[in-house]
Design goal:
Number of strands: 10
Structural class: mainly beta
Radius of gyration: 15 Å
Oligomer: single chain
Order of helices and strands: EEEEEEEEEE
Strand order of the largest sheet: 1-2-3-4-5-6-7-8-9-10
C-alpha cells in the first residue's frame, strides 16, 4: 500500500498495484502485469513474458527462454546454461561454480560458499550467513536477521520489517 514513488524497489508476491513506470524494479511472484519495457528488471517465477532484450536482468524459476548474451544477469533455479565468464552476475540455486571475485553478486539458495565481503549483494533463501553491514542488499525469504536501516533494500516474502 506504499506510495510507488517512495520505494525504488516495490515487491508484491501476489500482484503489483503500483504503476510500472514508478518502479525501476518490479517483482510479481504470481504474474507480471507490467509492460516489460517500463521495467529495467522483470522477474516472474512462473514464466517470463517479457522480451529478453528489454530487460537487463531476466529471472525465470522454471526455465529461461532468453539468450544468455542478451542479459548481463542470468538466473535459472533449475540449472544455469550461461557461461560464467560472460555474466557479471551468476546465480545457481544448486551450487555456484563461478569464482566469487568474478561476480559482484552471488546468490545461492542452498548455501553460499563465497566470502560475504566479496559480494555487495548476498541472497540466501535458507539462511544468510553474511554480516548485514557488509551487504547493501540482504534478502532472506525465511527471515531477515539484518537491521532494516542497514539495508537500502530489504526484501522478505513473509513480512517486511523495514520502513517503506
Amino acid at each position: 500500500m506504499a506510495e510507488p514513488k517512495s520505494n525504488p524497489l516495490l515487491l508484491d508476491p501476489v500482484y503489483n498495484m503500483a504503476e510500472p513506470k514508478s518502479n525501476p524494479v518490479l517483482l510479481d511472484h504470481a504474474y507480471n502485469m507490467a509492460e516489460p519495457k517500463s521495467n529495467p528488471v522483470l522477474i516472474d517465477p512462473a514464466y517470463n513474458m517479457a522480451e529478453p532484450k528489454s530487460n537487463p536482468v531476466l529471472l525465470d524459476h522454471a526455465y529461461n527462454m532468453a539468450e544468455p548474451k542478451s542479459n548481463p544477469v542470468l538466473i535459472d533455479p533449475v540449472y544455469n546454461m550461461a557461461e560464467p565468464k560472460s555474466k557479471p552476475v551468476l546465480i545457481d540455486p544448486v551450487y555456484n561454480m563461478a569464482d566469487p571475485k568474478s561476480n559482484p553478486v552471488l546468490i545461492d539458495p542452498v548455501y553460499n560458499m563465497a566470502e560475504p565481503k566479496s559480494n555487495p549483494v548476498l541472497i540466501d533463501p535458507v539462511y544468510n550467513m553474511a554480516e548485514p553491514k557488509s551487504n547493501p542488499v540482504l534478502l532472506d525469504p525465511a527471515y531477515n536477521m539484518a537491521e532494516p536501516k542497514s539495508n537500502p533494500v530489504l526484501l522478505d516474502p513473509a513480512y517486511n520489517m523495514a520502513e517503506p
